[in-house]
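Narrative of activities, Objective 1.

The group set out to show that a structural description can be obtained from nothing but a protein's sequence at a throughput compatible with the screening campaign. Below is one input-output pair from the validation batch, recorded exactly as produced.
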Amino acid sequence: MKRNHLWTTAPLALGLALGSLQFTPVLRAQSQAPPAGQEDQQKSEVFVGKIIKARDGRYALLTDEQAGKGVYLDDQEKAKAFEGKNVKVTGVLEVAKNLVHVTDIQPA
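Output recorded for this entry:
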């Protein structure tokens, strides 16, 4: 009698598939926005750099020109007024989104 290999490998495949599901909620929890009011509890920081228009059309603060490192700015209207200029941005950094919640922008 010929043995059906589907039944011998199915439990392994099912176990691997179900085993990977247990990690999904952890990844979702890390990418969620902080609860309302939590941003106010975080400390404001000052970021210095040059405001540029990124390839995706959003304004960002380029903090290290040589390395091409920077952060996006949530207040696009304020940022637009300083495009191409060196500035000091005060705000709260949301690391998961690489985004600064801007409270103030001043010329550097």
